[in-house]
Amino acid sequence: MEATKAAPGALGLPGTVDICLRAGQNLCERYKDVQETHKDIEDLKIRVENAWLHIAYQLATVQSSSEEVHQVLTDHIAELLNKLQFYLFTACKNLEKLKDKKGRTKVIKFAIFLKGSLGKDVSALERWRDMFSSTFYMLSVPKNPALDHILSMELQKSQPDGSAVAAVNAIRDVLADEPTKQLKSVWLDPMIMRLPTPIGYSGAHNILDNTTNTRYIMETITVDPGRRDYNRLDKDVTKLASVLRESNGVPGVLACKGVVRKQRSDGAPEKFEFILEMPHGLDESPECLRTILQRSTNEPHPLDERVFLTKQIAKAALSVHNLNFVHKNMRPENILVFPNPGKTLGIPFLVGFQMFRSADGITYRAGDESWSSNLYRHPSRQGTLPDNGYRMQHDIYSLGVILLEIGLWSPFVNEEGEPAAALSQIVHTLQDKDQRTRATRIKEVLMAMAYKYLPPKIGSKYTDIVISCLTCLDRDSELGSESEFLDDDGTLVGVRYTQQILGVLEEIDI
């Protein structure tokens, strides 16, 4: 049976999902048939089955909930399904080449074919799974009782370990105005820690719990002594910790074990220590990206690994948005890179939530006005009276500066906290007393650097992504005008980001 392709618009989303589900199951069955003759295909068969297991459960949920999802998100999912149909069709077609006209499996050229087309087909399916998972987590944000009911019904079916369906349902429950169940307390007793080790410039610490001999990452949020709305502060810390606790498996986000509240002598909160779990399967000795950039300037990591790093950071930025928070402090100091076996660069995770804010709430800590922190902030977010409320586009701007720095692989901040050689041209600009003028000029310098230096180093497509990030709040931005997002629940900007930033990054293959 040959895989069928159809236009999503002709059948509607549920019909297109049904075609994909049947095509995916057909691909898995074909791999089983071929594997009986070719034992060497076992690894590819396992990869296909693992990828499809997660895809199928997410597609079934999308099929059930299509009428309750924002139209913009529905249209985006339809585009992704069109790509999935193509990948499944191509994979089935290439697998069919292993058989002769009588249906018997060929043997002679299998080894070469295995390393070529079949491996690429499976990798394409895995990349689609990862991209779709980022989109699927967008279901976490919109408040919709009907969608809650659909997700709870889907959870009654058996789910694979690390199910995104279960994670989305749990995150929605935490974010709900009236959770369906009593949330487990996030507060922990003080830990007996041995040798808490600072992690570079991040402010986070690598700690060891003596009681359980377990390693964690500790993030500290210090409370402004002038604050008095302690109940609201406790509530928002609880919400952030609860959301992070349910985020196990969410790209670029460390799951939270709980929070230790430290008090001053008068009983007022002094700081909150977030205890974050180590990511599964990675080395427990992370470094912050700033340290890596400064150490390896003269010996850049392989280009493909640097591009992969940027893809993971971009996914992490979307993950924070899907958890209904804006980060507000994205910069290399707050990106922890965990060593990945077999790679010179590891997997990045975002920390630095000291300035956290829920997407519809208020900020609890004033900003750091150092030049190196402002470097990663949009001009409208600098100064004592910022022009606009914080939203995802401001994190996207910060991402653009980070992508520029990684693309050049030259640190913007040296070990003394001063402008590094790559930013020597802004030294004079930093003397300007008008903060907004200074910030605007620095943005212009960053864009000029991107246009001039990135194309020969990493290509025009990557350059375009950096420029899109740096101009995301401009009136003619490709991400859309400000008026489009006034009544948006976050879905529109998330979809645009996925299509024009994350999606294009995924297309870069080095």
From TrEMBL:
Transmembrane segments: none annotated. It comes from the Eukaryota. PROSITE patterns: PROTEIN_KINASE_DOM (PS50011). It comes from Tuber melanosporum (strain Mel28). This is (Perigord truffle) hypothetical protein. Residues 193-492 form the Protein kinase domain. Pfam families: Pkinase. One of its GO terms (molecular function) is protein kinase activity.
